[in-house]
Every structure is written in structure tokens, then in C-alpha cells.
From TrEMBL:
GO cellular component: mitochondrion
Alphabetized GO MF terms: FAD binding; quinone binding; sulfide:quinone oxidoreductase activity
Name of the molecule in the record: Sulfide:quinone oxidoreductase, mitochondrial
Source organism phylogeny: Eukaryota, Fungi, Fungi incertae sedis, Chytridiomycota, Chytridiomycota incertae sedis
Similarity comment: family membership: Belongs to the SQRD family.
Localization, UniProt: Mitochondrion
One GO biological process term: sulfide oxidation, using sulfide:quinone oxidoreductase
Domain FAD/NAD(P)-binding positions: 32-162
Alphabetical list of PANTHER family matching this protein: SULFIDE:QUINONE OXIDOREDUCTASE, SULFIDE:QUINONE OXIDOREDUCTASE, MITOCHONDRIAL
Chief location category: mitochondrion
SUPFAM superfamilies reported in the protein's UniProt record: FAD/NAD(P)-binding domain
One Pfam family cited in the UniProt record for this chain: Pyr_redox_2
Cofactor(s) required, per the database record: FAD
Keywords, ordered alphabetically: FAD, Flavoprotein, Mitochondrion, Oxidoreductase, Quinone, Transit peptide
Organism encoding this protein: Powellomyces hirtus
């Protein structure tokens, strides 16, 4: 049941005044045709696609569950961390984005009972006919000793948290030389390019401020490669060499000793061991993992992600469950661009399942994209299939080269594609465009 507090907050919200999504009155046993867990870029895109179908007009048969009052377009946070965009440009009230044919429950999910088609939250139990699991990925700051206490203070920051992303810019601007260290963990993360993007932008700022020769820029990654796809990894390695960014692979941050301004790295290579590095600026990308309720609900694969068919996004055991986005087990890189492509497939297959139509299912090809900003006005636009490892570039030039076009596309055009397209269920990625702009895929 919906708590009184939730209902009270909702009735006063801007969204209900404007006639957008509203929560229904409390029912003893609420049931929805479609329940979507997560109002992020994956969940909203699917909710909006389903809500557009004639079947759902004039009804409230879709429920989106998300406790957050704000939704963030997180791909902008690298820009925010480097002072190139304001945090407010990435922010929108959640109530503005929930489709008007859907209800919004501001609670967090504690469990799914897939055998009985029930979602349990911290205040409610909701029955569903169909479930979309898109809760996103969990940031595990506490898995690095000393990090939680030091984050946002004395040069320790992270673009991955709303609380610290503006601190990144503050600390980069205040930096006077010394060791500037940027880290990437050994776990899967969202936007695997972001840990190095901020290193490139910071290095450029230090150069422009005339303090580069007093500065040692280090990138430490727990992974064995700088980027998963060789075509882009080769160019990024050249960028690091030409700009004297010291790359340390299989070097995993395990502890921050803020009293001594020391970062402790564990080598994941055959030689093992630990190294202690003094820092003056430390940008941390925390380890990440799947939300625990997925495993506890018996819908996870061995790694804790939702166990789905990699083409249809449908659950391997429960056909009325679909999953996409960062929490899904779809074996590709976790980005908003991947979620866009997945949302088109999930939306179509879910509607087919709802209507029991026997059409052939839509298939996801693993498309994902990572706009790797290498400086102000310079960007390597990686686009590829995480399933084949092959580039799938939209434009007929080599997107592994640094490009001003790719930069302005990412900073000025794609955010409006996101707000006007993706979260409204109208953007399923550039596949359709690519067939016209790069028909022979010469990438
Ligand atoms: C994309 O579709 C997308 O989703 C809105 C992004 O968001 C983060 C992207 O960064 C990129 C690059 C794409 C791909 C779109 C084009 C036009 C190449």
C-alpha cells in the first residue's frame, strides 16, 4: 500500500499540478499491467514506449518505481567535473519525466517475488503482469578503505556522485602542481571511458594554467586494457603517450589515507604487491555492483545481474520479466547509449508479449557508445557492438580520431536527443541513421 507520506508529497508536487503522472489512491492490493523498476535512462525509455501504445491510453496500468525526486543525465557529469557545463543542466524533476499514462511510486524496491508476480518495496506490495527491471548500478564507495570519509575533501573527488561532481572542478582549478591521480576499478562500471576522460580534461587545464611541468598525471586502472575495443584503445594509448599521462594497468585502488594524502594500489598483475602513491588531487571511480535485491529475488545470473536473453532482453526463466540498462546481464558496455538501443528492443518485445502477438522478436546487437572527450573541443566517439567487439560507427569518417564535430555533437546535440527523444521513448539509438550515413560500415 502507498504510505500517506508518499501520497501527500505527490499531491503537492509540480508534476500533479501540471497534470502529469499521479499516484492513484491507496488500494489494498494494487496491481498493474506493467511495473517498471527504475526511473533512469533505461526504465523511463521503456515506460514511455509502452505508454505510447494505444492499449494504454486513458488508463493507469503502468507503474514506475523510483525513490529519487530528481533524474540526472549523467553523461554530462564529465563536462560538469571539468567546469564545461553546470550540474543544473543535467538535472530534471522526476515528476516531469514519468509518462502521463503511468503512476510513480517514490519507494525503493527490496524484493521481487517472480513466482507470484509481486514487487515488494519499503512501503508497498504491488502485483504485476509484466515487469521491467532497470534499477541501475550500485556505487560501492565503501569498498575502498578511507574513501567515504575523504570524498569531497582535500583533493579527493569523484564525478560519479552528485555530491562530489562539482568538487572535481573546484579541486582541479585550485590545483597548484604535484601528483594528480585518476582511478578506475576492476569491476564493471557505467561509462567505462569516464575515468580517463576527466584525466584528459584536467591535464589540458593544467597545461593552460602553466603548471603542467610541475604536475605528474597518473591514470590507474584495475583493468588490463585502457579500453575494451582495440581500435579505440590504440588511439587512446597514443593520446596518453603524447600528453605524458602515466598509465598503470592492473593497478587497483584499495585505500585512501587522507591524513597522509596517500593512495594505496594493489597490483592485479602476476607480480602482485602494493604501491603507495602520494596525491595532491585524487579522482576516484568507485567499484560498482548489481543491486542486492536482484540476487535475493532469484532473478540474477552468476554475477548478480538480471539474467536475460542477450538478444530479446527477456528473462531466461520468467517470460513476463524483461531487463535492460546497467543492472541487466546484457554482456555489453554499460552506457546511456546502450540503454537507448536496448529500450527499442525491450519496448517492442514487451508489447508483443503483452498483446500475445506471435511476431518475430526484435533483437539487440550489443550496440553501445562511449564519447571519449580528450580535451575541450576534441573527442573520440567510440561506437561498437559489445557482442562482436566490432566498431559500428554512425559517421563516414574514422571516429577513433579526435574530432571537434564529435565533441559538439556530444556536448550540444546529444543532450537534446536524450531529453526530447530517449526519455520520451522516441530514440532507440542511431542504427536507423547509420544505414544512411555510413551504409557500408567502413569503421
Ligand atoms: C546516443 O544515442 C546516446 O544516447 C542518447 C548517447 O548518450 C549518452 C551518446 O553519447 C551517443 C554517442 C549516442 C549515439 C548517437 C549518435 C548520434 C552517434
Amino acid at each position: 500500500m502507498f504510505s500517506r507520506a508518499t501520497l501527500a508529497r505527490r499531491s503537492l508536487s509540480a508534476a500533479s499540478r501540471r497534470g502529469l503522472a499521479t499516484v492513484t489512491t491507496a488500494k489494498p492490493n494494487p496491481q498493474y499491467k506493467v511495473v517498471v523498476i527504475g526511473g533512469g535512462s533505461a526504465g523511463l525509455a521503456v515506460a514511455a514506449r509502452v505508454a505510447r501504445d494505444p492499449l494504454f491510453q486513458g488508463k493507469k496500468e503502468i507503474l514506475v518505481i523510483d525513490p529519487s525526486s530528481k533524474h540526472y543525465y549523467q553523461p554530462l557529469w564529465t563536462f560538469v567535473g571539468a567546469g564545461l557545463k553546470k550540474l543544473s543542466e543535467s538535472e530534471m524533476a522526476m515528476g516531469e519525466l514519468i509518462p502521463k499514462q503511468a503512476d510513480w511510486l517514490r519507494e525503493s524496491v527490496s524484493k521481487v517475488d517472480p513466482k507470484n508476480n509481486v514487487v515488494v518495496t519499503n512501503g508497498s506490495e504491488i502485483k504485476y503482469d509484466f515487469l521491467v527491471v532497470a534499477p541501475g548500478i550500485k556505487l560501492d564507495f565503501e569498498k575502498i578503505a578511507g574513501l567515504k570519509e575523504s570524498l569531497g575533501r582535500d583533493g579527493v573527488t569523484s564525478n560519479y556522485a552528485v555530491e562530489s561532481v562539482e568538487k572535481t572542478n573546484e579541486f582541479i582549478q585550485a590545483f597548484k602542481g604535484g601528483n594528480a591521480i585518476f582511478t578506475q576499478p576492476a569491476t564493471p562500471i557505467k561509462c567505462a571511458g569516464a575515468p580517463q576522460k576527466i584525466a584528459y580534461l584536467a591535464e589540458e587545464i593544467f597545461r593552460n594554467k602553466g603548471i603542467r611541468d610541475q604536475t605528474n598525471v597518473q591514470f590507474h586502472s584495475g583493468m588490463g586494457k585502457i579500453f575494451a575495443i582495440d581500435k579505440y584503445a590504440e588511439e587512446l594509448t597514443k593520446v596518453c603517450q603524447s600528453r605524458d599521462i602515466n598509465v598503470n594497468l592492473l593497478s587497483n585502488l584499495v585505500e585512501v589515507r587522507s591524513d597522509k594524502k596517500e593512495a594505496v594500489f594493489k597490483s592485479l598483475g602476476p607480480q602482485g604487491g602494493e604501491s603507495i602513491v602520494k596525491y595532491d588531487l585524487l579522482h576516484v571511480t568507485p567499484p560498482m555492483s548489481a543491486p542486492a535485491f536482484i540476487k535475493e529475488s532469484g532473478i540474477a545470473n552468476a554475477d548478480g545481474w538480471v539474467d536475460v536473453n542477450k538478444e530479446t532482453t527477456q528473462h531466461t526463466t520468467y517470460p513476463n520479466i524483461f531487463s535492460l540498462g546497467d543492472a541487466s546481464g546484457l554482456p555489453t558496455s554499460k552506457t546511456a547509449a546502450a540503454a537507448a538501443a536496448q529500450s527499442a528492443v525491450t519496448g517492442e518485445n514487451l508489447l508483443q508479449a503483452i498483446k500475445s502477438t506471435a511476431g518475430s522478436p526484435s533483437a539487440y546487437n550489443g550496440y553501445t557508445s562511449c564519447p571519449l572527450i580528450t580535451g575541450k573541443g576534441k573527442l573520440i566517439l567510440a561506437e561498437f557492438s559489445g557482442y562482436t567487439g566490432k566498431p559500428l560507427e554512425t559517421f563516414p569518417f574514422n571516429q577513433a580520431t579526435e574530432s571537434a564535430f564529435s565533441y559538439y555533437l556530444t556536448s550540444d546535440i546529444i543532450p537534446s536527443i536524450y531529453w526530447n527523444g530517449q526519455v520520451k521513448g522516441l530514440w532507440g539509438g542511431p542504427t536507423g541513421i547509420r544505414k544512411l550515413t555510413n551504409p557500408f560500415n567502413n569503421s
